[in-house]
Amino acid sequence: MTDETRTEVNLTEWFEDAPRLLELTPQVYTVTEWQLWTVWQSRNKVLQALMKTIRRLDEEGHIPDWEMRLYEEAWNANVGGDFKFVLDWVRLLDEKI
Fold first, then answer.
1. What pLDDT shows up at residue 93?
2. Which one of 8, 10, 16, 51 is most buried, by most CB atoms within 10 A?
3. Is the pLDDT reported for residue 84 higher than 60?
4. CA dihedral 63, 66, 71, 73 (to 10 degrees)
5. Measured between alpha carbons, how far is 38 from 54 in angstroms, rounded to an integer?
6. What is the per-residue DSSP string for the chain?
7. pLDDT per residue over 63-82, tens digit each?
8. Are 83 and 40 in contact (CB under 8 A)?
């Protein structure tokens, strides 16, 4: 992709409402492990599709090794811990409430 083919994208247009982090309340919600697993599975579908495409391009030789390492580091930094970590964290919160 050259600079001439790049397109500027305003990500705020993708969302109906801006995040309202300051309006969050301390309301307690109880979720089942199944509900938590469903959210966990759905939260990264777009990133998973992107990484699948990037890996395919890498296998075809279109992405240099140094650039692939950057993609992998960004993936590892943003996807976070595994499901067991999240489940243990929720269980800990439930015990404190």
1. 77
2. 51
3. yes
4. 160
5. 25
6. --GGG-----GGGG-SS---GGG---------HHHHHHHHHHTTHHHHHHHHHHHHHHHTT-S-HHHHHHHHHHHHHHH-S-HHHHHHHHHHHHHH-
7. 899 988 888 887 777 665 67
8. yes
Q: Which amino acid is at 12?
A: T
Tell the residue number behind the tokens 């929720």, with chain if given. Answer: 90
pLDDT tens digit sequence for 42-65: 777 777 788 888 889 999 999 899
Q: What's the alpha-carbon Rg for the chain, to the nearest Å?
A: 19
**Distance (Å, whole) CA 87 – CA 60:** 38
Tell me which amino acid residue 10 is: N
Q: In whole angstroms, what is the distance from residue 58 CA to residue 48 CA?
A: 15
